[in-house]
Amino acid sequence: MLRFRMPSAACELPFLSLVPLALAADTSAPIRMKKAAIMKRLLSTFALAGAMGLCAFGAQAATKLEQVKSKGFVQCGVSQGLPGFSNPNDKGEWSGLDVEFCRAVAAAIFGDPTKVKFTPLSAKDRFTALQSGDIDVLSRNTTWTITRDTSLGLNFTGVTYYDGQGFMIRKDKKVNSALELSGASVCTQTGTTTEQNLADFFRANNMTYEVIAFATNDEVVKAYDAGRCDVLTTDRSGLAGERLKLTNPDDHIVLPEIISKEPLGPVVAHGDDQWFDIVKWVLNAQLIAEELGVTSQNVDEQVKSATNPEIKRLVGTEGKYGEGLGLGNDWGYLIIKNVGNYGEMYDRTVGPDTPLKLSRGLNALWNKGGIQYGMPIR
Amino acid sequence: MTDLAGPVGGRAKTSFINDPKVRSIGLQLIALVVVVFLGWSFAENARDNLAAQKIATGFGFLDNTSGFGINQTLIPYSETSTYGRAFFVGLLNTILVAVVGIILATIIGFLVGIGRLSKNFVVRTISTVYVEVLRNLPPLFQILFWYLAVLSAMPSPRQSISLFGEVFISNRGIILPRPLFGEGAGIVVWAIGLAVLLVILFRHWSASRQEETGRRLPVLWINLGLLIGLPLVAMIVTGFPISFETPELKGFNFVGGVQVIPEFVALTVALATYTAAFIAENVRSGIQSVSHGQSEAAHSLGLRNGQTLRLVIIPQAMRVIIPPLTSQYLNLTKNSSLAVGIGYPDLVAVFAGTALNQTGQAIEIIAITMGVYLLLSIITATIMNAYNRRVALVER
Ligand SMILES: N[C@@H](CCC(=O)N[C@@H](CS)C(=O)NCC(=O)O)C(=O)O
């Protein structure tokens, strides 16, 4: 059989994978964006087919880290706009928890949190973009499930936000529980775990429903606002974000039931364990930092005067823990200095003082009543 | 004497490699082998590499349980059905939009196209504005307009507009009474089928009779009588077995009845009106291609305007209209994939959308989906080409 042994650069098929990126940049008009999105999906499938068909794997010479370093930035897949997680602000800069995490990865590698480029992806396009190598990390409120972890060729690197699926409904419908929703029309987004959870929940409770599934979040929100459906369902954190986009956010309530587990986290492609480790340990470092009280404000101080060996290992004044990752030993310091610890990141983007007003809940540290737990650096 | 040893009348004796026929077949064979080999290597490579990255491959997923709901299903489907069945649900939804859209677009297109040539200023202007506006706005924009603008203007189910207490219009769509078939309903259905058959036969018979004798029968009235009378008699004989279930508002939505979802209405109307603008232009140019002498001749035979158009002009114009009409039909079918934009569960939304995302088998699913669109296009084109041959000018 013919083997196309190509130099690894050719295996990247740069010409193919650049097209979707170029299209993604074209976000001037919503209509054009939609067309571009359709094209983009097709193209990234072709890019995937192309990459898979033309290249012999293992022939890859450059590691992901080397590739990222040589292009000079991390390409990070985010949502097309979910307040609190990944959303362009008025100045057109990306902001949110998922966005800050990507900045932390860039900080660990380059010492510069701005060395990151964002690719907005709809729920359904996100995995293809990762598989085809268009993006290096997917940080887009993505639920860790066994199918995604085992049959899509992906690895989840941890959980940045423990969540669960909920329902939002207009107050004037006078519904207090999700169990009163039989017969309701429900709006949701395709390509999410949400669709299946919804089906399971209604079936388990012997209730009927009508589902209307849209490709993008924008349409979900518009259709819900126009009254096409009684209920909007997605991750509860997502509901908090989407509610801000409604005409009158205060006319809507989120019902108390949580119908699923939605551990949201960053994802990388199979095939490069070093890269997997780097992304995994960026989050761990941020969690450890919070646990140890190391913040972006005091980290310089800690470098100079910390005596706690745990802190010294984190900021790189003791041991050579960056080596195993292929990074500098000050990788932890760079993350905390430039982006901050997990708690800082949380408070800035989704916390009680933001429009989303999400209390820490499950996302508090393990020793503060939550389940966030950073693996030890040692 | 000249030497006659050389071949006479035959071909020069050259090596068969230089035979143009052998050459062209040979080259084609080589090209075919190369293409097949490349394709095969590509597929093999893809399979190995996907396996190396542990990305699921193959078509086994089609038998797995889908686990998601779909809000318009022409065949029985539930969350416990397979992905394979979800595929057919999506496919049928695509075909439904395509067929209804094509019929509507053809009717509107012909009316507007003829309207553009009308002597009546108002009709002509409206038709022109129609064509210029609809043809020049992007179809996705029109779909979103029909969906969101019209949807927001509709009342909630509780305040729905009711027609005779049987049909309800709201932002959940149009809810129609559902026909319930009791005992003996089969006979009525057969009677309807029989009536349709008789109508077709009768039309043929009266047409050939008119050719022979020149006498015209009141075809329309007799056919209407057949269409209504026969099923009615059957209903009476079997004691009215078909009843209607009136939709009823219960909780959030109507229960009972048939729901025509707003996504379907918006998509079909938008695609039909958009495509109609192009068809109108085809019709107009088709009509203009028929020489003016034809209508003068028809008029001098005493045919009225309508008859001239129907019996003389349009049949000749069809030869020019059909080929571009075919590509408009294909466009409409392909544009139906814009359905994802408004949440209509067509093939792309259900299969290349939800199913793809849940299984992650992008290459297989996109390949199947592209194959299906190709097949739909080929079928449409084949039908239209057959029709084209029938109306084509037969030189005598
Ligand atoms: N966590 C779920 C849902 C993720 C998801 O896509 N959520 C929607 C609704 S909150 C979203 O982020 N939309 C934003 C966008 O599409 O840009 C998953 O991984 O499937």
From TrEMBL, chain B:
InterPro entries from the UniProt entry: AA_ABC_transptr_permease_3TM (IPR010065), ArtM/GltK/GlnP/TcyL/YhdX-like (IPR043429), MetI-like (IPR000515), MetI-like_sf (IPR035906)
Any one Gene Ontology cellular component term annotated for this protein: ATP-binding cassette (ABC) transporter complex
Keyword vocabulary terms for this entry: Amino-acid transport, Cell membrane, Membrane, Transmembrane, Transmembrane helix, Transport
Signal peptide boundaries: none
SUPFAM superfamilies registered for this protein in UniProt: MetI-like
Topology of the protein relative to the lipid bilayer: Multi-pass membrane protein
Cell location: Cell inner membrane; Cell membrane
Alphabetized GO MF terms: transmembrane transporter activity
Bilayer-crossing regions: 25-43, 86-112, 133-154, 187-205, 217-240, 260-280, 338-356, 362-387
CDD domains: TM_PBP2
GO biological process: amino acid transport
Gene3D superfamilies to which the protein is assigned, alphabetical: MetI-like
Domain ABC transmembrane type-1 residue range list: 91-384
Similarity remark: Belongs to the binding-protein-dependent transport system permease family. HisMQ subfamily.
Protein name: Amino acid ABC transporter permease
